[in-house]
Amino acid sequence: MTGPIAYSPEVAAAREAGTPLVALESTIITHGMPWPRNLETARRIETVIRDEGAVPATIAVIEGTLHVGLTDEALSQLARAENVAKLSRADLAACMATGGTGATTVSATMIAARLAGIEVFATGGIGGVHRGAELSFDISADLRELAETPVTVVAAGAKAILDLPKTWEVLETYGVPVIAVGQDVLPAFWSRRSPHPAPLRLDTASEIAAAHVMRGALGLPGGQLAANPIPEADEIPAETLAPLIEQALADAEADGIAAKSVTPYLLARLYELTDGRSLEANIALVLNNACLGAAIAREIAGLRDRVAGAQIDPL
After folding, report:
1. 141 annotated as belonging to a binding site for a ligand
2. In what helix (H) or strand (E) does residue 152 lie, and over which residues does it extend?
3. What backbone torsions phi and psi does residue 68 show, to the nearest 5 degrees?
4. Domains of the chain: which residue ranges?
5. Which residues lie across from 202 on neighbouring strands?
6. Coiled-coil intervals in this record (predicted)?
7. Inter-axis angle of helices 141-148 and 106-116, to 10 degrees?
8. Do the annotations mark residue 155 as ligand-binding?
9. How far from 152 is each of 8, 171, 214, 221, 245, CA to CA, in Å?
10. Which of 1, 255, 293, 313 supports an S-S bond with 154, CB 3.0-4.6 Å?
11. Residue among 207, 189, 188, 186 at smallest CA distance from 197
């Protein structure tokens, strides 16, 4: 039994009209950026998607109801809210059942998108295998979700604070297509390039959409990851970031940070260590991913229309 879902007026109208939709997470609002940049950025992301011919569906749990699409008032309230839970697959249902309020991570957003019939989700970066996971076993639920839930996720790769080689190995084991967009190596969140060769390369939104639709036609479970490099003008080179990430990781260990608190802590610490540059890069890459996500959603809708039209007997 699924819990109650509330659609914003904009999303409800899009579902009725068959307008392409793009899902958006809400932890970037509640846990990823400080007020008021979080609200400003959330509004900018939604505007980019509308400008590209799709409709944004920001997802969150508010007082036990799963909201797919938020009004501007609800978005503003969430951006100011305190003590908001960070929801993954494990605790989404419990939060809803107890009337709680929570922001959705990548995995929870994918689940909500599937329930709402949304096939594309744009975010910043996915979670993955944390450094030292061979001892802590700290591995994000995002990876398993990509293997199970049929949503195309557009991200700037995995967050660079993670153990990237192990993250890509886990996704390969799970059979998740990892697609570098327009280049032969995988991006690394704030940096366009990493040392890791791309398992797959596709150059256009139409190719990514076709791969998504083909997976469904073959009955393959799970989604795919479109790893979209940050715009060149906004990136922070990997060699610049590497020592700062090591410093942030050492600080987290010294402060006893663990579990769901690790990523927000590291992002905040890197904001300090880069004099705010990491936040600006984060905003730029999310906007870039939103633009591509809208294009993929449009292409998927076009493919669906053409397939439906081909099945109609002209006689």
Report:
1. yes
2. strand 152-155
3. -110, 100
4. 5-310
5. 181
6. none
7. 20
8. no
9. 22, 14, 12, 12, 28
10. 293
11. 186
DSSP 8-state assignment for residue 162: S
pTM score of the predicted model: 0.94
CA dist., res. 55 & res. 46, Å (int):
8
Residues 6 or more apart from 110 whose CB is under 8 A from it?
23, 121, 145, 146, 149, 151, 153, 223
220-233: pLDDT as tens digits? 999 999 999 999 99
Stretch 244-250: mean pLDDT? 95
- Looking at 3.90.1150.10, 3.40.50.300, 3.40.1790.10, 3.90.190.20, the CATH number of the domain 5-310 comes to 3.40.1790.10
Q: What would you measure as the largest C-alpha separation in the chain, in angstroms?
A: 73
- Tracing tokens 């294009």 back to the chain, one arrives at 295
- Over residues 171-193, the mean pLDDT reads 98
107 is in an annotated binding site: no
- Which secondary structure element, helix H or strand E, spans residue 243, and what is its range? helix 238-254
Tokens of 184: 């032969």
Q: Is 106 labeled as ligand-binding?
A: yes
Q: Which two tokens stand for residue 249?
A: 């990781």
List, for residues 2-48, the tens digit of each pLDDT value. 458 999 999 999 999 999 999 999 999 999 888 999 999 999 999 99
- Top-confidence residue, 1 or 21: 21
Q: Tell me the C-alpha distance between 60 and 76, whole Å.
A: 13
Contact 109, 24 (CB under 8 A): yes
Determine whether the annotation assigns residue 180 to a binding site. Answer: no
> What is the C-alpha separation between 271 and 43, in angstroms, rounded?
21
Residues that are catalytic: 25, 159
Going 15 to 148 to 62 to 283, the CA torsion angle's sign is negative
Q: Is the pLDDT of residue 1 over 80?
A: no
DSSP string, 68-133: ES--HHHHHHHHH-SS-EEE-TTTHHHHHHTT--EEE-HHHHHHHHHHHT--EEE-S-B--BPTTH
